[in-house]
Amino acid sequence: MKAFLTRWLVTTLAVFITAKIMPGISYGDSLGTLLAASLLLGIVNALVRPVLLLFSLPLILVTMGFFILVVNALMLELVGKLIHGFEVDGFWAAFFGSILIGIVSWMLNGFFRKDGKMRIVTNVTPAPGGQEPKQVSGRVIDI
Q: Running DSSP on this structure, what letter comes out for residue 112?
């Protein structure tokens, strides 16, 4: 349950940052709308997206993976149509918004392990002789 809540928080932050940066994507300054949109986006990406990816596999192969961006945009646009107050103004806003959400989510997920615990790097020590590789020690913080 903790891992689910962590992923939901990460997705919510990614949608929030995207809505602040991208013109054409807004959540109406309501935290409830933002939370609902990020939850539905996670559900749609978990249930609907794999089916669409399977059906569009020939297009994905022909376009060397580019069509996955179109599928992601369609998922974001679907969430914009289903959640009242979460606005996505057209395909191109959804296209670039889904790319930004993906990048921000990827960056934020780098701080979390699969079990929902946060990783913080606290000390970096150089290898003997000052050569690479560096040894990194960290600590895990329960949230």
A: B
Answer for the pair 7, 60: CB distance below 8 angstroms, yes or no.
no
* Secondary structure class of 44 (helix, strand, coil): helix
Percentage, residues of the chain above pLDDT 90? 65
- Alpha helices by DSSP H, 22-62: 31-55, 57-62
Q: What is the 3-state secondary structure (H, E, C) of 67-88?
A: HHHHHHHHHHHHHHHHCCCCEE
Q: Give residues with Cβ within 8 angstroms of 50, minimum separation 6.
A: none
| β-sheet bridge partners, residue 25 | 88
| Residue that the structure tokens 């020590």 belong to | 125
Reduced to 3 states (helix: H, G, I; strand: E, B; else coil), residue 108 is helix
Q: Which residue has 């991208």 as its token pair?
A: 22
pTM: 0.75
Tokens in use for 98?
């889904």
Output the six-digit token pair for 136.
Answer: 């990194």
Which residue shows structure tokens 């329960």? 142
